[in-house]
Design brief:
This protein has helices spanning 2-5, 19-28, 43-51, 66-75, 87-96, 107-115, 131-139, 158-162, 178-183, 186-202; strands at residues 7-11, 33-37, 57-61, 80-81, 100-101, 103-104, 120-123, 146-149, 170-172. It is of the alpha/beta class. The strands form 3 sheets. The protein has a 4-stranded parallel β-sheet with strand order 3-2-1-9. Strands 6-7-8 form a 3-stranded parallel β-sheet. The two termini are 29 Å apart.
Length: 211
């Protein structure tokens, strides 16, 4: 589903009561997947609330430990994303039967991921780590590896990432900005998501949403 939609909103939700209306706003905008990060205390409750929405694929992000993997899966997470590469986290994901997308930035980390049997990784932080040029350079020797760049990806540059054959999807917060989440402006979220979805479908760079 992530590959089909090519977009993965990265969500830090401080208030779990906002999880269900947020999930519904994503679906209304045409995007049936989301990554809810462990950056807030509300993460587990938010994952559970969003995972209960029909048609929405929910994963856990910023997962740093095997214990967080267990909590995420128990809440209904169907995939796990980490900012870096942790063999312990990847192995626990395998034990729990959920895909793991660890963060990588170097050839060594990619080889470590390959050693664990992975073929799709998160490239993070994308812009700070060399962006489009770095992914193109890495994909030359690692021809079987596919990337989900996250970190600095936005409506203006997402097309340059998606045009790389090795890129499965892009992740980011621009569709779900913190101030809009705080304001619980679900119509705005739907508009931002819809524009991102349209940018992917049309092949044109995204434009800023209007209120």
């Amino acid at each position: 589903m992530i590959e089909a939609n090519r977009l993965l909103p990265v969500i830090a939700l401080p208030d779990a009561s906002a999880a269900r209306p947020l999930g519904e706003a994503l679906l209304a905008g045409g995007l049936p997947c989301a990554e809810v990060t462990f950056r807030t205390d509300a993460a587990v409750e938010a994952i559970a609330a969003m995972a209960a929405i029909d048609g929405l694929l929910v994963g856990a992000g910023t997962v740093l430990t095997p214990e967080q993997v267990d909590r995420a899966v128990a809440a209904g997470a169907r995939f796990v994303v980490s900012p870096g590469f942790s063999p312990a986290v990847v192995r626990r994901c395998r034990e729990r039967g959920v895909p793991a997308f660890p963060g990588v930035m170097t050839p060594t980390e990619i080889q470590m991921a390959l050693d664990e049997g992975l073929s799709t990784v998160k490239f993070f932080p994308a812009e700070q780590a060399g962006g489009v040029g770095m992914i193109k350079a890495l994909s030359a020797p690692f021809r079987s590896v596919r990337f989900i760049p996250t970190g600095g990806v936005n409506a203006d540059n997402l097309r340059s990432y998606l045009d790389i054959p090795a890129v499965v999807a892009v992740g980011g917060t621009w569709m779900v900005p913190a101030d809009v989440l705080t304001a619980k402006d679900w119509a705005r979220i739907t508009a931002l998501v819809a524009e991102a979805v349209q940018a992917v479908k049309s092949g044109e760079p995204g434009k800023k949403a209007t209120a």
